[in-house]
Amino acid sequence: MADSSRTTERYRQGLATRRAVLGDAHVDQAQSSATEFDRPFQDLITEAAWGAVWSRPNWTKRERSIVTLALLAALGHDEEFAMHVRSTANTGATREDVAEALLHVSIYAGVPAANTAIRIAKQVFDKLDADKAA
Question: Quick one: which of 3, 22, 110, 117 has the fewest CB in 10 Å?
């Protein structure tokens, strides 16, 4: 996407939704570290994933979060999975929601995928708890 995409309503909505889900610090870091090489990708995901899909009114952020976690776990996208586990603090998805989604992953995508995702989720939740306690 060209820089002109940053002026579209879908891009602006996507950026607002991305910030609401992932947090300002994450989005600011992603944008500030973007280079000529990956800026088109950052623009694409902001407009398409966050503006066209996550901003749709049909599902809540909680529902989208649960589905996203299950898909990322099933596909073995561990880094993205961890990022979206962290984002549950902003989406309303509970730890119980994550656990239920991962039970589904174990049946429909395999125990190894769920086992890895459970390990990652526990690590992320432990870090969030430690940060909150500090």
Answer: 3
Query: The tokens of 123 are what?
Result: 């690590």
- How far apart, in whole angstroms, are the C-alpha atoms of residue 15 and residue 18? 5
Provide the residue ranges of all domains of the chain, joining segments of one domain with +. 1-58, 60-134
Report the greatest alpha carbon distance in the chain.
44
CATH 1.20.1290.10 for domain 60-134, yes or no, is yes
Give the orientation angle of helix 95-108 with respect to helix 61-75, to 10 degrees.
40
Mean pLDDT by 10 residues, the chain (134 residues): 70 97 96 96 96 97 98 98 98 98 98 98 98 94
Do 100 and 74 form a contact (C-beta atoms < 8 A)?
no
Q: Write out the E strands in the chain.
A: none
